[in-house]
Amino acid sequence: MSEPGPWTVRAAWVVLPFAAGPALARALDTTATLFRTSSTVFAWTAWTLTLAVTLVPRTVSLTMLRITAPTTVAAVVWSVVDAGDDLGGWQSALAVGSTLLATAAAFSPLTGDAYVNGSSYGSERRMPLRIPGALLLLAPVAWLVAVVGTGSGPLLLASGQWVSGLVCVAIGLPAAAISVRALHGLARRWVVFVPAGFVLHDPFGLPDALLVPRRMARRLGPAPAGADVDALDLTHRAPGLALLLELTEALPVNVSTGRREVGSVDAQRVLFTPTRPGALLEEARRRRIPVH
C-alpha cells in the first residue's frame, strides 16, 4: 500500500496533452489538411486508449503502455526539430521532458510489478523477471517494427499515397502483430508466489513452469558476486542482481536447449533475475520461505 503502483504513470499520461500537445500541433500546422486531421485523430485515439488501459492493471496493459510511451518521445522529438525556432525553448523542454517522464514511469519496475501482479488470481503474488541480456538490443527493434508497421500504412493512405499506403498496410500490420506478440512475451515472465510455494514462469527458457514447493526450498538469496555458481542459470545474462535458489533435493526441469528443442536436467540450485530482488525476498520471507 505504500508503493505508488500505477498512479505515477497514470498522472504522467494525463498531463501529456497539455505539456506535449502544443509542440505536436505546431509541427502539424505545416502539413496537408488530410494528413494533419488523420494524425490528430490517431494521436488522440492512442492517448485515450492508453489512458484507459492504465486504469486496468493487467499484463496486456503493460505491453501496450510500453509500446505507446516511447512513441510519444519519438513524435515529440520530431515535432520539436520540425518546429525549430517557432517553438519556445521552455515549450520544447516541457514537451520532451513530459514524454520522457511518462516513458520512465512506464518502464519503472514499480509499474511493471503492479501491472504483472494485476493478472494474478486469489492469493497469488506475481513479480516480473528482467529482460534477457540477449534481447536488450532486439526489443527496441521489435518496438520500432510494431510502431512503424501500425502507423505508416494509415498515415500514407491519409496523405493520398494509395499504392505505398496499401503496401505498408499489407506488410506492416502482420509484422507489427508479430512484434507485439514478441514484446508481450517478455512481459509474461515472472515468479508467482502461491500457497504451496512459488513458480518460475519463463517461456524464454522453460517450456513448462517450474513449481518449487515450500518444503523443498532450502534457502533463497543473492547469488555470490564474481564467482561461478554451479546452478541452472535462468538469468539469460539479464542485468541486475541475480538470486540463487537452493533446494533440499534435485528437481527435474525441462529447459529450452535450442529452437523448438527441449532437454531435461536435474537442478538443485537455480539462478534467476527479478526486476525487484529486494521486494521478492521480502515476499518470500513473508510466505515463510527461508531467505538468507
Key phrases:
292 residues, alpha+beta, 3 domains, 4-stranded antiparallel beta sheet, 4-stranded mixed beta sheet, 8 strands
User: Spatial order of the strands in the main sheet?
Assistant: 1-2-3-4
Query: Element order, helices and strands?
Result: HHHHHHEHHEEEEEEEH
Rounded average pLDDT: 89
The counted number of beta strands is 8
Head-to-tail CA distance between termini: 25 Å
What fraction of the residues are assigned to beta strands by DSSP?
Answer: 15-25%
Report the radius of gyration as a whole number of Å.
Answer: 22 Å
The tally of structural domains comes to 3
Low-confidence stretches: none
Sheet with most strands: 4 strands, antiparallel
Q: Quick one: overall form?
A: elongated
- Helical element count? 9
Structural class, from helix and strand content? alpha+beta
- Estimate percent helicity: 40-55%
Describe what you observe in this structure.
By secondary structure, the chain is an alpha+beta fold. It folds into 3 domains: 1-119; 129-188; 194-286, no CATH class. It has 9 helices and 8 strands. The protein has a 4-stranded antiparallel sheet. Strands 5-7-8-6 form a 4-stranded mixed sheet, covered by helices on one side. Strand 2 and strand 3 form a beta hairpin. The two termini are 25 Å apart. The relative contact order is 0.11.
